[in-house]
Amino acid sequence: MSNATAIVKAGLTKRYARERRFRLFGLVSIVISLSFLAALLITIFAQGLPALRQTYIQLPVNLDPALLAVNASDSPELLQKAKYAKAIEAALIERFPGVTDRKQKMALIRGLLSKSADNELKSQVLANPKLIGSQQNFWFLANDDIDTYIKGNIDRSLPEADRRIKDFQLAWLDDLEAKGQIEKRFNTVFFTSGDSREPEQAGVLGALMGSFYTMFVTLALSFPLAVAAAIYLEEFAPKNNPLVDFIEVNINNLAAVPSIVFGLLGLAVFIQFFGVPRSTPLVGGLVLSLQTLPIIIIAARAALKAVPPSIRQAAYGMGASRMQTVFHHTLPLAMPGILTGTILGMAHALGETAPLLMVGMVAFIMSVPEGITDPATILPVQIYLWSDSPERAFVEKTSAAIIVLLFFLILMNLLAVLLRKKFERRW
Amino acid sequence: MKKLSMAIAVSLLTVAGVAQARDNIEIVGSSTVYPFSTMVAENFAKNSGNVAPKVESTGTGGGMKLFCASAGAESPDMTGASRRIKETELADCKKNGITPVEIKMGYDGIAIANSKKAPNFKITRKQLFLALAKTVPVEKDGKVEMIANPYKNWKDIDASLPDEPIEVLGPPPTSGTRDAFVELVMDAGCKEFPSIKALEKTDEKQFKGICGSMREDGKYIEAGENDNLIVQKLDANPKAVGIFGFSFLEQNEDKVKGANVDGVDISFDNIASGKYPVSRPLFLYVKKEHVGSVKGIEEFLAELTSDEAWGDTGYLTEKGMIPMPQDERDSFAEAAKSLKALEAL
To answer: Rounded to two decimals, what is the model's pTM?
Structure first.
């Protein structure tokens, strides 16, 4: 055996061991990051999924014309103003006779059904005024405390003083349950209404539409600007020009600026100087497009650079002008890369809250926005606001809103992956 | 795409030109008042059929700044405050041609709480000051000296307190709850030392420095603005004590309990009667100039001052606000109705 092979053989086991160790480290780091992700997802889904179902209580209501102060033949305006709350109050007292204590009576009238019960009854009666004068069974949304209990988040075995649901309320609920007058249904309210301070009436639609309009403004502003800037810098700008280099360095710096800075800029420039209304998707979108612009420019430039020079040279060879070359050949070939970068930039903007704090989008807004100049909030802000609310029932709403946000982020990332897969070319 | 961006640019310019009249009320201000002002906003919108107001939570100071900045339609109509307006803020408002109308909404209690798993906590404001101040007075050779807070255990302060290390989770300096805590607990506890109390007259700046500075050696932990987080941390760590608003105590009575301060338990009745020492008033300031030009302000105030809202059993009390006594309610309801301007403090 020669000397060299002896040296190699001696070190061989050590080198193999080193490789095994390295592989093990890699595997361990993957397992650790995956378990963090799993822990996050499991807690969010465990807390958020119950929010998809909401507790409803059935109550026989006597639609007595004397109590409602209207008749079936009255005009819709009069029906609007009928005393629905009175009818519900009477129905509750009839359902649970024997409640005489003042505090218990308050809990019965205020604490069993949601505060929107009279509105629910109103819409039912308006849809069918013939109901007036008869006894009908209606299902009403339950109050948030009741809902929390039904979902098992209040421990019955605790001493009464430590529970938000007292013994007398438990007796009512047991009675309702025994008679099948309480059930959980799919929570349509959560997906069809705006924010509310009552957890059982709160929904994400307002924030979802706010996010949609904000993203729309961001995309409409940043995409054309960014692509134009990228084309100019990549295809037309003079090479080795100090001014162009300066611009390039600044674009790269801009992409690394903390987002709150863009918020302050937005406040000073858009709101205070241009007078754009606060809290609107318009101003939010303007701020976010400042943030997204450099990201898309960088992605678009990389995509343009990746188109091989042979394509351009062939186009020139056929007599195309520079502009024709860009728009007929380079840009279409770079588009998948540009779109991927855009979607990732947008997904980033979708999860942003800090800059929007400064332009007044962290606000309680009940109505669902209908345009880019209506006051609106966005999903991450809605999550933040709910997580800060004292009511226990907002815990599950917070997690449910996170699920909705995650769903859209995954959807956007998936779209980026699909686009890349579909249009990707290897040269 | 091009057309679209053009359209947006054009709409931007037109918006810039006119500060148009609004049909929705805009409210800014304290995060403590936010849960209550949003409640009123929601009920106002439902009951009157008006457009729902927009309520931003900007903090008391930030709200005042926005409120007093201008009388134009783009500025907010109301601001919530967890303390009374300051002289400088009122002067700022007046300088910009704004007449604020002051309405006291009710009271908010600040709870000193710990986990249900831990024994009951009974403490005085003087003891809290000694536990949390940056420097404390110590008697040495007949003279009082200020030294860096040496207390590490509750027991070191007073034998009646538990034998546990001091660990208090509380709000950061940006929070209105912190301002109120300093004013109601630290300042009050501080004044029980005659030598410091004397300072208030001779050197107010030093007095404020001594009483208002919380210790920074890790015994007082700034837990962020989110009170739910403090409740969770208390539940996980029965040795810790937390400082947060009464509404969070009410919602989490299965997890945490409030301490007895100066011999008074924290409860709805004790705060309402003024016995519990750590409670503060909540205010709403309304811009008189906007009444009439912004739709619904008067109706909003009528909703706020109705018995269904701020009465003894109103919906605001359900959310944890402590109502004012009847005569105080009457006088502020009258001020809201007649839009009585706040001339001076």
So the answer is: 0.83
